[in-house]
Amino acid sequence: MPKLSVDDLKRIKEQYESTFNLRQGGYRAKVTVHMGTCGIAAGARAVMNSLVEELAKTTARDVIVTAAGCGGICSKEPMATVEILGAAPVKYVHLDAEKIKRIFREHIEQGNIVEEYALVVGKETSY
Fold first, then answer.
1. Which runs of consecutive H residues, i.e. helices, occur in the chain?
2. Which CATH number do you get for residue 48?
3. Which of 126, 124, 28 is CA-nearest to residue 82?
4. Per the domain annotation, does 74 fall within a domain?
5. For the chain, how far is it from start to end, CA to CA, in angstroms?
6. pTM score, two decimals?
7. Does residue 1 fall inside a structural domain?
């Protein structure tokens, strides 16, 4: 293995620091990709990867990306829930890599809900 230079170490530090910063402290936006068995089978991994890649292209440090189990509506997978501080959560359905990029740009960065992909705005209840 070749020796690492100081520049190599700085690059590695910056790469991991950006990932770490997303996991600590407060955040303005949270995106949960539903990755139960049904979601993964429907393509949730590609959605998650695309979202993380899109986030890495920005300087945003106030957005957190998480994974959760089944969103409860298997026929609508892949799904993601976007929560912006002070706004009602939005559940997006039938996602793919390109749709989540658009959601990131329009909803998370600009605050505009992408209505054609949204199933519901607000919290669903069973009562």
1. 6-21, 37-42, 44-56, 97-103
2. 3.40.30.10
3. 28
4. yes
5. 60
6. 0.76
7. no
Quote the CA–CA distance of 51 and 105 in Å, as a whole number. Answer: 10
Kindly state the tokens that stand for 118: 């949204």
For residues 60 and 18, is the Cβ–Cβ distance under 8 A? no
Task: In whole angstroms, give the CA distance from residue 80 to residue 89.
Answer: 10
Calpha distance 69→101 (Å, rounded) = 21
**Other C-beta atoms lying within 10 Å of the C-beta of residue 49:** 13
Successive 10-residue mean pLDDT values, the chain, 127 residues:
77 66 68 94 95 90 90 92 92 96 96 93 61
Residue among 100, 88, 82 at smallest CA distance from 32: 82
* Residue 106 belongs to a domain: yes
DSSP 8-state code for residue 80: E
Owning domain of residue 47? 6-121
Strand partners, 47: none
Strands across the sheet containing 80-84: 63-68, 29-34, 80-84, 90-92, 118-121
Task: Please state the domain count of the chain.
Answer: 1
Structure tokens at 102: 């658009």
Tokens representing 44?
A: 């949730």
